[in-house]
């Protein structure tokens, strides 16, 4: 396979006729690692969930309010989404716990038959409600509707997530910004472990729902090590790496991710929260991460930005008004098969239709990228894939953090490969 796009096409990724190298068997999650990259820490696996067998590394689109902003569940299936993410805070408000109980969970309520993951609601609460206050009991906040004081405890978060019925639930954690330093980071890390144990005790459906703990500890090596070790002792079905992607330097970000994947159990899935830029997905997969989520692909679509391997196309800029090619000729999504950049430029100004078409493409782009990553790992061609990806995305000047991160897993972009590609570093983050 020479062209990068060859990797993203649907069909056999290379799982057929293989036996797992190793696996874990939790009551509601079987994780089977089928291939490990012989150079990096990347692996290609399947995750058998109660509702679906997902292939990893995978990207999970975020569907706020239980719907994907105008994209139907059928379209998400056609775009090859394996697991989608629901926001517990929004779902708790509407449709609400009682209606979800009556409907028999969110899967039935929204007619989605594949995998689903819900967050704890805590992050949404802290970021949306300015008055949120954290105590040992939980997250205290003023109800925006009637101004009364309310509390989200670990027990309440799990009760609500049990009603939603997602395949994977997240623990309530004490969230601090990745830019916070000092004793507050240590307090939050230890409190998150105490809250994890309360979540585990409150969880009523361990036979059909999986509770993932979240590694915290800010950007502090000792604290993050302590957190990852403590969580590993809980023998959970999978683990999340949290508290990152909050504006910290990317060179610190990747080191915290790598440190976490080194400690977390090898036979369990690892989920890096809030990561969705293409280069981050490629680098973190090389560091041994299996799952990602981010609002970025659909949020940036609302601003008229279409994702491609070489970066974002701003369709609102007018630059493509006379361009009669699709967003990407290598993309097999309904938008690229039907519409030109010129057409999308015309409709993108008129809000919903254009944004919807770009959202469809952006989700398809994420799914194609993840297929490419899985296929490259399964064919033990991942280091070559990484080099080709970086050459298309950045040319010969690659951000320093990426060069450092890849060097840590034995890919040295500063030394020429067989094709002659090599890169020098620029000390800045990539344009988004
Ligand atoms: Zn497309």
TrEMBL record:
<dbReference type="Pfam" id="PF01702">
    <property type="entry name" value="TGT"/>
</dbReference>
<feature type="region of interest" description="RNA binding">
    <location>
        <begin position="274"/>
        <end position="280"/>
    </location>
</feature>
<dbReference type="InterPro" id="IPR002616">
    <property type="entry name" value="tRNA_ribo_trans-like"/>
</dbReference>
<dbReference type="GO" id="GO:0008479">
    <property type="term" value="F:tRNA-guanosine(34) queuine transglycosylase activity"/>
</dbReference>
<feature type="domain" description="tRNA-guanine(15) transglycosylase-like">
    <location>
        <begin position="40"/>
        <end position="391"/>
    </location>
</feature>
<dbReference type="GO" id="GO:0046872">
    <property type="term" value="F:metal ion binding"/>
</dbReference>
<dbReference type="InterPro" id="IPR036511">
    <property type="entry name" value="TGT-like_sf"/>
</dbReference>
<dbReference type="GO" id="GO:0005829">
    <property type="term" value="C:cytosol"/>
</dbReference>
<feature type="active site" description="Nucleophile">
    <location>
        <position position="293"/>
    </location>
</feature>
<feature type="binding site">
    <location>
        <begin position="119"/>
        <end position="123"/>
    </location>
    <ligand>
        <name>substrate</name>
    </ligand>
</feature>
<feature type="binding site">
    <location>
        <position position="173"/>
    </location>
    <ligand>
        <name>substrate</name>
    </ligand>
</feature>
<feature type="binding site">
    <location>
        <position position="243"/>
    </location>
    <ligand>
        <name>substrate</name>
    </ligand>
</feature>
<keyword id="KW-0862">Zinc</keyword>
<feature type="binding site">
    <location>
        <position position="331"/>
    </location>
    <ligand>
        <name>Zn(2+)</name>
    </ligand>
</feature>
<dbReference type="InterPro" id="IPR004803">
    <property type="entry name" value="TGT"/>
</dbReference>
<feature type="binding site">
    <location>
        <position position="333"/>
    </location>
    <ligand>
        <name>Zn(2+)</name>
    </ligand>
</feature>
<feature type="binding site">
    <location>
        <position position="216"/>
    </location>
    <ligand>
        <name>substrate</name>
    </ligand>
</feature>
<comment type="subunit">
    <text>Heterodimer of a catalytic subunit and an accessory subunit.</text>
</comment>
<keyword id="KW-0819">tRNA processing</keyword>
<feature type="region of interest" description="RNA binding; important for wobble base 34 recognition">
    <location>
        <begin position="298"/>
        <end position="302"/>
    </location>
</feature>
<feature type="region of interest" description="Disordered">
    <location>
        <begin position="1"/>
        <end position="20"/>
    </location>
</feature>
<comment type="similarity">
    <text>Belongs to the queuine tRNA-ribosyltransferase family.</text>
</comment>
<feature type="binding site">
    <location>
        <position position="336"/>
    </location>
    <ligand>
        <name>Zn(2+)</name>
    </ligand>
</feature>
<keyword id="KW-0328">Glycosyltransferase</keyword>
<protein>
    <recommendedName>
        <fullName>Queuine tRNA-ribosyltransferase catalytic subunit 1</fullName>
        <ecNumber>2.4.2.64</ecNumber>
    </recommendedName>
</protein>
<comment type="function">
    <text>Catalytic subunit of the queuine tRNA-ribosyltransferase (TGT) that catalyzes the base-exchange of a guanine (G) residue with queuine (Q) at position 34 (anticodon wobble position) in tRNAs with GU(N) anticodons (tRNA-Asp, -Asn, -His and -Tyr), resulting in the hypermodified nucleoside queuosine (7-(((4,5-cis-dihydroxy-2-cyclopenten-1-yl)amino)methyl)-7-deazaguanosine). Catalysis occurs through a double-displacement mechanism. The nucleophile active site attacks the C1' of nucleotide 34 to detach the guanine base from the RNA, forming a covalent enzyme-RNA intermediate.</text>
</comment>
<keyword id="KW-0808">Transferase</keyword>
<keyword id="KW-0963">Cytoplasm</keyword>
<feature type="binding site">
    <location>
        <position position="361"/>
    </location>
    <ligand>
        <name>Zn(2+)</name>
    </ligand>
</feature>
<keyword id="KW-0479">Metal-binding</keyword>
<dbReference type="GO" id="GO:0006400">
    <property type="term" value="P:tRNA modification"/>
</dbReference>
<feature type="active site" description="Proton acceptor">
    <location>
        <position position="119"/>
    </location>
</feature>
